[in-house]
Design goal:
The protein is about 25% helix and about 15% strand. It has three helices and four strands, in the order E-H-E-E-H-E-H. The protein has helices at about 40-50, 90-95, 130-150, and strands spanning about 25-30, 55-60, 75-80, 105-110. A four-stranded parallel sheet has the order 1-2-3-4, with helices on both faces. Strand 1 (about 25-30), helix 1 (about 40-50) and strand 2 form a beta-alpha-beta unit.
């Protein structure tokens, strides 16, 4: 495939702030184990360090209810998988209220929870219709596009 990858940005990707550089102010988290692992920990850190964090990437995860980031000046990308049996679509939908209005939510069509980390099958997870490598590649390309869109990589 020729040319530069340009993933389709969903309708939730409205921009309300000018582009900025993340520098060291970007945090990301995988999975949603509580009380303080993965995406839950990343969202907690972003919430308690609003003066230092300007971006948050959630992978198959969402903030805990105690971390309301809806009024935060924060660029957010939330990637979730179509067949994730551990982080359910209903969990992602409920988390929208805890994130800024312009947070970007992107579903990985055909992916599952295990594909986020390449760690094999997990009890309760759905069956992926794409390879783990395909899911990882999609996540990397979408993350790079998000960073570029948010102004972190160049100006």
């Amino acid at each position: 495939r020729e040319g530069r990858f340009r993933p389709r940005v969903g309708q939730d990707s409205r921009r309300r702030r000018p582009r900025r550089r993340f520098g060291e102010g970007l945090v990301t988290g995988l999975s949603r184990e509580q009380p303080v692992e993965g995406g839950v920990a990343a969202a907690m850190y972003a919430d308690s360090h609003r003066d230092r964090v300007s971006g948050l990437i959630l992978l198959g995860s969402y903030p805990a209810g105690s971390n309301d980031l809806s009024d935060a000046d924060l660029d957010v990308l939330s990637m979730y998988a179509e067949f994730d049996g551990l982080t359910l679509l209903s969990d992602i939908e409920e988390s929208r209220a805890l994130l800024p209005d312009d947070a970007i939510f992107e579903m990985i069509t055909g992916g599952n929870h295990a594909g986020f980390g390449l760690y094999g099958d997990q009890a309760g997870d759905g069956t992926a219709e794409i390879s783990a490598l395909a899911q990882q590649t999609w996540m990397i390309l979408r993350t790079l596009a998000f960073l570029e869109q948010s102004g972190s990589s160049s100006d």
